[in-house]
Amino acid sequence: MTTPRPFGRALCAMITPFTATGELDLDAAGHLAAHLVAEGCDGLVLNGTTGESPTTTDAEKTALVRAVRQTVGDRATVVAGVGSASTRHTVELARAAEQAGADGLLVVTPYYSRPPQSALEAHFRTVADATALPVMLYDIPGRTGTRIEPDTVLRLAGHPGIVAVKDCAYDLLGSAKVIARTSLAYYAGCEELNLPLYAVGGAGFVSTVANVAPRALRAVLDAYDKGATAEAARLNGLTLPLAELMMASGLPGTVTAKALLDAGPVREPLQPAGREATRGLRAAYEELIAQSGPPGVPPAGPGN
Fold first, then answer.
1. 177 a catalytic residue
2. What reaction does this enzyme carry out catalytically (predicted)?
3. 212 among the known binding-site residues?
4. Which of 208, 220, 229, 269 has its CA at a distance of 20 to 30 angstroms from the CA of residue 57?
């Protein structure tokens, strides 16, 4: 069976650059998007949690999608995060993203209210019916408080507009069962599952770490596709120290990515990484590049 890849294989959950005074920096967003595509990303996911969607306005979200679309053209897919705690608001964001030129929608489970599975299913169907864009479900119960149960995903797979899942549920068995029974494209949303999920039929990844090491992450998939599974495992192992520091060190991925990129501040309530954390991130990044090969343009963070 051929694995469906409606949005590509190597997708970056892109950070949202701000100016020094905290305003949306569309020029910097365009430069970063172009760099990521040149370094091997065939898809960009905008306005997700990594993109600080909780603290950007609806107008900023739309402007970012439009600017990145204009920059990358047809060289990469543009997927817009439109999820919220409100079905009505999510539909509004979805329609705005469609008008701004997005290729697809990332729709996270409504958070905090913890709707039951029947309500979740109705929510996703309503959003999928609202535009002509394909939908990627975002299953991240650790943040939303609610899992999209595999049986619910199986039912939603019958909707023609629901084509993919960003998987942060940490249930490889459940994901493998859905992959085996549907044509949904499963994208790893947690870097430690990039290779394991790919090996059981996943489509690729949506990665925060790809903001700073897109080529190293894509190389893992390239090696696996060539049948060089041992090499894929070796290359994957090289990425883990940086991924662990960026995603499991107690700091949000947005903060750690911006510590390695010249992309402006984070918005409150987030706070920038301290000097010690930034030094550790820089060391891990430089070690990865030394082992896997230089990127086109290395990140330039504060304190360098």
1. no
2. L-aspartate 4-semialdehyde + pyruvate = (2S,4S)-4-hydroxy-2,3,4,5-tetrahydrodipicolinate + H2O + H(+)
3. no
4. 208
